[in-house]
Amino acid sequence: MSQAHDLVIRNGTVLDGSGGTPFIADVAIDAGKISAVGQVAGSGKEEIDAKGLSVTPGFVDIHTHYDGQVVWDSHLAPSSWHGVTTLVMGNCGVGFAPCKPGDRDAVIALMEGVEDLPGPCLNEGLDWQWETYPEYLSALERRKHDIDFCALVPHGPLRVYVMGERALKLEDANQEDIARMREITAEAVRAGAFGFSTSRTISHKTLAGDLMPMLRAQESELTGIALGLKDAGAGFIEMTSDWNTPDPATEFAMVRRVMEACGRPLVFSLNQRHDRTEAWKDLLELSTTAYKDGLPIRCVVPPRPIGALLGLTGSQNPFAGTRTYRAIADLPLEERVAAMRDPETRKKILADDPTELNTWSLLNRIGYARMFRFSDPLNYTPSRDESLEAIAAREGRTAPEVAYDLLVEADGKNFIFACLVNYANYDLEAVKTMYGREHVLPGLSDGGAHVAFISDASFPTFLFSYWGRDRGADKFPLAHLVRRQTREPALFAGLHDRGLIAAGMKADINIIDFEKLELQRPEMVVDLPAGGRRLMQKARGYAATIKAGQITYRNGVATGALPGGLVRAQPTN
Fold this sequence. Notes:
Elements: E1 5-14, E2 23-30, E3 33-38, E4 44-49, E5 54-57, E6 59-61, H1 69-72, E7 84-89, H2 104-115, H3 119-125, H4 133-140, E8 148-151, E9 153-154, H5 155-163, H6 165-168, H7 175-191, E10 195-200, H8 219-232, E11 236-241, H9 248-262, E12 266-269, H10 279-292, E13 297-301, E14 306-310, H11 323-328, H12 333-341, H13 343-351, E15 371-373, H14 388-395, H15 399-408, E16 416-421, H16 429-435, E17 440-442, H17 459-470, H18 478-485, H19 487-493, E18 509-512, E19 518-519, E20 523-528, E21 532-536, E22 539-540, E23 542-547, E24 550-554, E25 557-558
Parallel strand pairs: 1-4, 1-5, 6-7, 7-8, 9-10, 10-11, 11-12, 12-13, 13-17
Antiparallel strand pairs: 1-2, 2-3, 5-18, 14-16, 15-16, 18-23, 19-22, 20-21, 23-24, 24-25
């Protein structure tokens, strides 16, 4: 009698992560690893009939911000609801280690401002069982999770740890500072960090409007920290930049020099901005040239518009900066909606300056021309005629009136979809062009961040349902998209044991009904520490998600299995 396997997936259509032609096969799993792919003779202690379903590696998301959530929550939802089995956190130069006790408030302020994670939630949820980066990793290792996570050393806390108040004042690092940051980075990577992250974008600020400590870091500082990765023999650099200091070509040339000095991979975020609609083309060509020159460079590109969901249940709406709305903002939703339906209140709010108390207001960035009713079924690619500005013109109303009335409908639970990037021309043609380049990966979900007004951890589900099915004649082959969401990001990050369905690989697997794959409507839930709220979005079509050989989700419902946790990098020096 053939020996029983721990788990056997039968008769599924395997998209193995290589990008090759899908094939029908069984997949056997033993001791958390894939033991056989093909016609498996032995039975399984548990078996899943995957006939008519697709079997893929678990998805790998290399741009998230679960740095706080991993401390207090074993379920890294919503990412784990969308087939993600491994993620990388600590991006954009913000995180919580290293951190001296006296700097905790400053470090929380960085995360609160950049990633919209409420300070009260972080103050209550973080137990601060660490100061150094190795201590941070050890603290994270104590809790089991539903998926694996890797951590980057964030430039902001690192700079504050070494330079103190001088970092917050954006002073230049001296040679002693740089040497110390290099040493700490190497120590962190040797302890298991997967690299280093930084931010060079002016939109990243604290709630008080202060710029990030690393915004103006000199090339010598970036090179010095990057050499810490070289010293350890592992790790990659993650960077977010405006690419305008003083211009994209000059900034990119600096990035190339940093990469050449340290010999380590680098990934940066790329999208189509609405104020500089063609700038992405220059960066795409510059990075393509670097990639062809042999530099290990990658771009992560969102598969759809990064969209803020503006509403009365979230942290942002077009009237949040008005004095009259602010006076009722803390009322329970039902009472607030009732107040807003009062004609006099409506008149006052519409007459107020919407940016008076909120200088960050989205109205300053995109206006009503790229705001849309977030309807059912969900539409992430609305036409220009569907914008609030266009509706107002057709109906003889002002755009603020259209927005106001939409928000008070449905008992105040409606959302306005505000397209922040990737939708300058009301289409995704720019994304299609970027996705056609070999070095471009789908990503930038920001899972775990912007919790009260962005719900983009669902990017993987959109990637496959739109670009692999609903896009039309110019859709991408599913096998190609699977490779881009699994094996390629895994290899980039240094995770050689996953992202591929083959014998000996980690048994991280999704079983998916691609024809039924769809996103559900986001909902605001109150489940963060200190009573914090966040947007959560589920999906249909995931028959099962398997992490390290254990079924963690069946039809979108958690099984209670927690086989995931911290993954430590394996440095060579």
